[in-house]
Amino acid sequence: MSRLSTKLLILGASGRCGRLVTQEAVKRGFNVSILVRSNASDFNQPGVTVFNGSVLDYDTVESAVRGQDAVACCLGIRRRSSVNPWSKLLSPPDFMARSAPLIVRAMDSNQVDRLVAISAAGVGSSSTYPTKPVRRLLRMGHLETAYHDLESMEQVLANSDLDSLVVRPVTLVNYALKSEARIVNRYSLLSVVSRSAVARWILDAIQRPDRFEHRSETIG
Fold first, then answer.
1. Nearest 10 degrees: CA dihedral of 180, 184, 188, 189?
2. Mean pLDDT of 81-105
3. Which of 25, 29, 59, 89 is 20 to 30 A distant from 3 in Cα terms?
4. Which CATH number fits domain 7-219: 2.40.30.170, 2.40.50.140, 3.40.50.720, 3.40.50.300?
């Protein structure tokens, strides 16, 4: 049975990946809804419904999920500086661990079961993929905190009844690359993938006809 989804809720749409997922979804003709913390005037365009509020508030999440066919989760811990692992956290250190159960509950309540979520290469079953220098880097500053939080999120999804896919990109960059994203099982300091390629991967995944069955994909 075809699982082509037309009504898509994007969580974390104001982030760097989330914005690209939103733009690409509109381009592909999805009926897009987004949940953002404050009024997002730059998303006031045809095909985008804006919900305002926090993903840590169940009623807000439930309202946004209602009537959707699928959810794309582009959430994650935010730091003041994305390139400085010691930079001050702008999110609670357990942000994903707290938001994931609310998302699952809201989706269950509304019988919406297809979810694609961004995690990171090196989380969960991909913990052996990074080279030793990368592993040392991931133990620095708040990076370790973020990885523990993503692992908690993944565990919540794995224990749920949702049809979930976790996408684990290697180091994200803003510029376009010559090659498209692909499945990888190795992650070095030179491994990069563009955010635009990740956005396309997420939307391609949402449109797949087969069930995910709690699948995870590390891409680079």
1. 30
2. 87
3. 59
4. 3.40.50.720
